[in-house]
Each structure stands twice: as structure tokens, then as C-alpha cells.
Amino acid sequence: MAEERLATRTPFPASAESQKPRLKKAQEFPILEKQNWLIHLHYIRKDYEACKAVIKEQLQETQGLCEYAIYVQALIFRLEGNIQESLELFQTCAVLSPQCADNLKQVARSLFLLGKHKAAIEVYNEAAKLNQTDWEICHNLGVCYIYLKQFKKAQEQLHNALHLNRHDLTYIMLGKIHLLEGDLDKAIEIYKKAVEFSPENTELLTTLGLLYLQLGIYQKAFEHLGNALTYDPTNYKAILAAGSMMQTHGDFDVALTKYRVVACAVPESPPLWNNIGMCFFGKKKYVAAISCLKRANYLAPFDWKILYNLGLVHLTMQQYASAFHFLSAAINFQPKMGELYMLLAVALTNLEDPENAKRAYAEAVRLDKCNPLVNLNYAVLLYNQGEKQGALAQYQEMEKKVHLLQDSSSLEFDAEMVDMAQKLGAALQVGEALVWTKPVKDTKSKHRTTSTSKAASLQQPLGSNQALGQAMSSAAAYGKLPSGAGGTSHLTKPPSLPLEPQPTVEAHPNEASAQIREK
């Protein structure tokens, strides 16, 4: 029975799926970018060793054809300082993808870092043909032209960058061009536009405040520096600038309080120690002043402003040989400043070398067309040497300068300087038997009176208006142009801010200048 049941069962047809032939698996091809995500992950985590290991493996698998791996390898080389190697790798990326503007931008960037600015400009121009709406290309072209001192082309490119996309950095570089050209008014206009665009940028606020400070517009300077400190209370550049304003107006204790805050942020700042030293000088603490200035000189041995101040302090302390040493060094770095030659002549006079003192005074008169102190001290020396005609000529020249200064601004001159000028005038007109009888007995002490008068006029304002020095020093990497120290001096050139070695930026140098007291 069981066998019959099995025989009568009807067979079921096989399923259609089982009858279909199986599809063959597609052949696998190597994917060039399969580990790009891992390379990117290691790179943004700054795990460069692991990143380089993955890159090596990826390049072996792809026989060196993975563009992204080569690109990241080049970025790592640049970060490590191997600029030439990074340039070669970026050039390889440009060959693999010739229509990619980013690769050309990186090639140009490496050329820029190697100092090949003309070659960088050529590559940036090629990149601009591929992407005409990239503001970075125009900005970087402007920076390259700045290094070639082609300021007109630089301005044109930076304006193009601002037309495409406004950025703080472009405003900063454009402002620096005007400062390098000595056009302070245009620079201020640019920075004002930049502050309107980015009102919370403390760097822009600080720079604008420093420019107003150099022009002597203290209210606006204080306003912008105050705004910078409102957004960033630890902004050492703004604090240092505010301290220098207080120092210029004789508030040495308040200025020193500000400088203590800055010392915590930048303890190795040469302008900071220069300012602290001149605060002590204003308080007549000369040993402390020399100590701080020596520290500033150790940190910045080629800064003529610090050498100037050291010479001034030593001259005030009647240490004439030391003063001669520092003033001579300052003249080597700043040979076009008449006041340095005047101070050198005072030191030489007290070192009993009248012939060289006359030469120094003659050079000071040739270079400085504004400062009456130069002519007054020279006239005193000539009078003491018996050269009355020369003394009279210098006295008359001094009077001309005084009248010009009085016409141009409401100045009140130092009392000792006025007294010395009156005595000299009386002696030249009436004879040498009048008020000059006592000074003539001792030529050295007579001239020392004049040098003391001069030094007294120098005491108050010699703090450098920092910000414009390593607030514009990152400056320090390039040649600084002199900037005016705050106060009443009419002897300084228009300031200029230093250009940063890279398109990211900034600092400002300070100047210690002889000053005529103002009320």
C-alpha cells in the first residue's frame, strides 16, 4: 500500500528561480579614492604620521595616481617646512588635474613662500583664467605685487578682491600699502571702512587707534583702543598703546600698571621694556631705566629707538662715554635723524672733543630743518669756542624755527631752553661780560647746562607708542619705517606700518623722539 501511494504522487514542477542561470560577479577595479576619507580624518586631527602612512599605502596601490593623497602629502610637507618638496608635489597635482584652479593656487603659494614672487604671479594669473570669481587669487596677487613694490598693481588687485568678496585681511593689506607710501589719510579711510564692515575686529580697531595716536588725535585714538579692549580685554597691543598714551601725558604710574598686564602676555617684547624703561626715566629712576632698556636692547639689538633712549639716559646721568657708544650705534641704524647727531655732539663736547662735536652739529643742522634745539646747542658750542659770527648765524636760524613752530601750533617751550636762549641772545648782542661770566669760567659746565636743558625737554615723551611695533612687528621680520612717537614733536616722519611676511598679518614700530614740551 505504501508503495502504491508513493507511485501515485504527482511530481511538482521545479521553481522558475531555480531554472534561471546565475549572474556572474562583475570584475572589481581598484578605486583610487577609497581611503581618501581616512587621509582626511587623520589630517584634520593633525595626526600627520598616521596620515603619511595611509598616504604611502594609497599611493602604492594606485601607482602614484591618487591626486588627493599627493595633495595632502604636499600640505604636510609645507607645514613641516619642506617648501620645495611641497612645490613639486603640487605641480604633480596640477599635471594630474590641469583644469583645477586650487592646484595652481597651491603651486603659486609655494612659490610665494620660496620668495619667487614673479613666478607666483604668473601661476596666479593662470589660476585666474580658470576661476575668475575667486577673491583669494586677486588678494594673493596683490600681496605678491606689494613684495615687488608695484603698489599701483597691488591696489588694483586688492580692490578687485574686495569687489568679489569683502574680507578683513584684504582691508588690512590695502591699508598697509597706503602706509608704505606715506599716505596716512588714505590708510585711515581704508581702516575706517574695514571697521564699518567688521566692527568687532580688535586688530582693525587697534590699528586705527594707533594711527589716530600718531596723528595726535587722542580722543579718537582712545575711543578705538577702548572698543578693542571691550571686545578683547587681554589684547596686549591695545593695552600697550593705551599705556603709551598715558605715558606721553606724564601718567607714568598708571602706564606702568598697564604694562604689568602686557608683561604677562608678552614678557619678551622689546617695545614693552623700552616703554617701561622710559617710564622710570620720567620718574627720574635712572638705574631702573637703564636696566629695562638694556633688557630691551638684549631682545632687539638692532632697534635704533632703544639705542637712542639708552644714549639719552646715559647723557642725563653724565656718563658721556656710554652715551657716545649707544648714540653712535643708533646713528649706524638711523643715519638720517638729526637729533641723534645733536645728542652725539653734546656727548662729544663733554668728552672735550669740540672739533668732532662741530662736525656732528653741522650734520644735525643739515638733516633737521625743524628743531630749534639743534641750532641753540650748536650756537652755545660756537660761542664757547669764540666763534661769535657762527654762533649768531645759528641763533638767528633758531629764531626762524621758533617763529615757524609758533605760527603752526600753540606751543610753549621748555623754560630752561627759553632761559638759555635769552642768555645767549643777550651775550651775542651786548658782549660776553654780562650774564655769561659764570658759565664762561667752565666751558664744560656751561655746555652741560644746555645739554641738561635739552635732556629735560626729552624726558617726558620718550615712550614709544607701541602697537605700532609688534602690534605692527610681526613686524620685525622686515625693514621697519620710523613712526612718530606720541606727544608734541614736530620732527618725526609720517608713520608706516610694517608689511607682514604672509598675507595674514601685522605690528608697528615705535620711535623715541626729542620733544618740545607743550601745555
Automatic annotation (TrEMBL):
Disordered: annotated segments: 1-20, 441-461, 478-519
GO MF term list: alpha-tubulin binding; beta-tubulin binding; dynactin binding; protein-macromolecule adaptor activity; RNA polymerase II-specific DNA-binding transcription factor binding
Intervals holding TPR repeats: 168-201, 202-235, 304-337
SUPFAM superfamilies: TPR-like
Domain of life assignment: Eukaryota
Cellular location(s): Cell projection, Cilium membrane; Cell projection, Cilium, Flagellum; Cytoplasm, Cytoskeleton, Microtubule organizing center, Centrosome, Centriolar satellite
Entry GO CC: BBSome; centriolar satellite; centriole; ciliary basal body; ciliary membrane; motile cilium; nucleus; pericentriolar material
InterPro entries: TPR-like_helical_dom_sf, TPR_rpt
Keyword terms: Cell membrane, Cell projection, Cilium, Cilium biogenesis/degradation, Cytoplasm, Cytoskeleton, Flagellum, Membrane, Protein transport, Repeat, TPR repeat, Transport
SMART domains (alphabetical): TPR
Chief location of this protein within or outside the cell: membrane
GO BP terms, alphabetized: adult behavior; B cell homeostasis; brain morphogenesis; centrosome cycle; cerebral cortex development; dendrite development; erythrocyte homeostasis; face development
Family, similarity comment: Belongs to the BBS4 family.
Name of the molecule in the record: BBSome complex member BBS4
Natural source organism: Panthera leo
Gene: BBS4
